[in-house]
Specification:
This protein has about 400 residues and is mostly helical. It contains 18 helices and no strands. It folds into two domains: about 1-185, MFS general substrate transporter like domains (Growth Hormone, Chain: A), CATH 1.20.1250.20; about 205-404, Up-down Bundle (Growth Hormone, Chain: A), CATH 1.20.1250. Helix 1 (about 5-25) packs across helix 7, helix 14 packs across helix 16 (about 320-330) and helix 17 packs antiparallel against helix 18 (about 380-395).
Length: about 400
């Protein structure tokens, strides 16, 4: 196993940059879309939804492909090429004068953001199986940091120019690519290199291959259900805050910042000790219980002070994702670490596509004037029910043993 901390620092930076790239477009994208289309905010919102969906669809399609390519050609070239392409993509967005060029840029961004699976595979390569959960939690902390920094950077730079956030993000991607070129060793050896197969690289083929590993099928099902449930936060939080508490955009941004900081701290400081103390299976089990309780509480609470106090507690449920990632990684052989992480990325992308539709429809049903019960928190109650189903699958499923 590679002991140097520099490769891990590079991987952490890559995941954080991915999250920043997603987050920085939040405050600037409405203005940019209106700028290139000349349309009103309603049409801009419609285009924004199409751009977001295209991003998620590309992640679904290309997560397993990039993961399988990294199993064949190595993690280093896939990560470095993706970062360079990401930088060029930001330049395209900064220069785009038509909505179709923006659309193409978001498609490319969805492909390059699928490097998350390769980053996770690299961590699996350099980390003993019993420590992978904590390392995956560290990457989750990087995503949380990016979730906080992205909108902040985007909002600040947008005050200078609508295109400035994209130039900034592109520069960061290039600097990180240079950093990786200087310090990142390859982890795929001739002993672990696996021939590339398009039949297994496509999402359905990769999912089928992974599902045949002992115990993995239920873990993948848990991961998908959990991802749909936890996507309730980005899907509905802004609408929920306004409908339940009358929050303005500033207060919504502050509450999201509290959530992002809490999530990052939880991933960095709590996940490792929880997994060391209980192991991946029980850490995921207890984390699911935290999610069930906190999601139900958010759905029922009516005090804005209570919701802000409750938000940091949700960080205790952050062990679920890295623990499930570690369980899936344990089951996969050394030559399929990229593939299994690609499958998880695809499942998360499915959740990013499905969850907004489910959660916003539920919100609309329980907040419209003729609703039988006015319940802005109904999507969170639904998410809590989904986590109960996830918990049942996890408890009933077989324990995974390492095949690495």
């Amino acid at each position: 196993m590679i002991s140097s901390r520099l490769p891990l620092a590079f991987i952490f930076a890559t995941v954080t940059l991915d999250a920043i790239g997603i987050g920085l477009i939040f405050p600037v994208m409405p203005d940019l879309i209106r700028e290139v289309t000349g349309n009103d905010i309603a049409d801009a919102a419609l285009w924004g939804g199409l751009l977001s969906t295209s991003f998620a669809v590309m992640q679904f399609l290309f997560g397993p492909i990039l993961g399988s390519l990294s199993d064949r050609f190595g993690r280093r070239p896939v990560l470095l090429v993706s970062l360079v392409v990401m930088a060029l993509d930001y330049a395209i967005m900064a220069l785009a004068q038509t909505i179709w060029l923006l659309f193409i840029a978001r498609v490319i961004a969805g492909i390059t953001a699928a490097t998350h699976s390769t980053a996770n595979a690299y961590v699996a390569d350099i980390t003993p199986p019993e420590k992978r959960g904590a390392r995956f939690g560290l990457l989750g902390a990087g995503f949380g940091v990016g979730f906080v920094l992205g909108p902040m950077i985007g909002g600040l730079l947008a005050g200078i120019d609508t295109r400035a956030p994209f130039w900034f993000a592109g520069g960061l991607a290039l600097l990180n690519a240079l950093f990786g070129a200087l310090i990142l060793p390859e982890t795929v050896t001739d002993a672990t290199r696996r021939p590339f197969s398009l039949a297994r690289a496509n999402p359905l083929g990769a999912l089928k291959a992974m599902a045949h590993l002992p115990g993995v099928r239920l873990t993948l099902a848990c991961f998908l259900i959990m991802s749909i449930a936890m996507n309730v936060y980005p899907s509905i939080w802004a609408y929920y805050g306004q409908a339940r508490f009358g929050w303005d955009s500033g207060m919504i941004g502050l509450s999201l910042g509290i959530y992002g900081v809490s999530y990052a701290l939880g991933q960095a400081l709590l996940v490792g000790p929880m997994i060391r103390l209980w192991g991946e299976h029980r850490a995921a089990h207890y984390g699911m219980w935290v999610d069930v309780i906190t999601l139900a509480a958010i759905g029922l609470v009516t005090s804005p002070v209570a919701i802000l106090i409750l938000t940091p507690i949700t960080a205790l449920g952050g062990a679920v994702t890295p623990a499930l990632q570690a369980l899936a990684s344990r089951a996969a052989p050394a030559d399929a670490q990229g593939e299994v992480q690609g499958v998880l990325a695809s499942l998360n992308a499915i959740a990013m596509i499905v969850a907004p539709l489910i959660m916003t429809s539920t919100f609309q049903h329980f907040t419209k004037p003729e609703a039988p019960v006015y319940a802005p928190g109904a999507p969170f109650l639904l998410a809590s029910v989904l986590m109960i189903a996830c918990l049942a699958l996890h408890v009933l499923g077989p324990r995974i043993r390492s095949s690495s």
